[in-house]
Amino acid sequence: MRPWQGCEEETLNRAASLLQEALSLLSGSGPGLLPAVSDEDRLIRLPEVLRLTGMCRSALYEQMSRGQFPRSVKIGPRAASWSARAVRSWISDRIAE
């Protein structure tokens, strides 16, 4: 076995895992993830917003400044979060386009 073969297999396994997670998000059956259909709202932090949207931090903040992404909510002097419902709605709007 070549040294890079293990990395390649690990990368493929990670990609398969991410694809499975994305499919479960779309079907609304993801374990511990935001449900696709729910009246529940909660505050989520930046790393989760970035993971759910697939955006990088700078793109997210640029879209917020343009009014194209939900605004963050201050939860402390140095902490911000987003409404999970607003982020889910934004994702749904992108999928519907």
Automatic annotation (TrEMBL):
Query: Its domain of life?
Result: Bacteria
Residue span of the signal peptide, if any? none
Entry's PANTHER family? DNA-BINDING TRANSCRIPTIONAL ACTIVATOR ALPA
Q: What is this protein called?
A: AlpA family transcriptional regulator
Which organism encodes this protein? Simplicispira suum
Give the lineage.
Bacteria, Pseudomonadati, Pseudomonadota, Betaproteobacteria, Burkholderiales
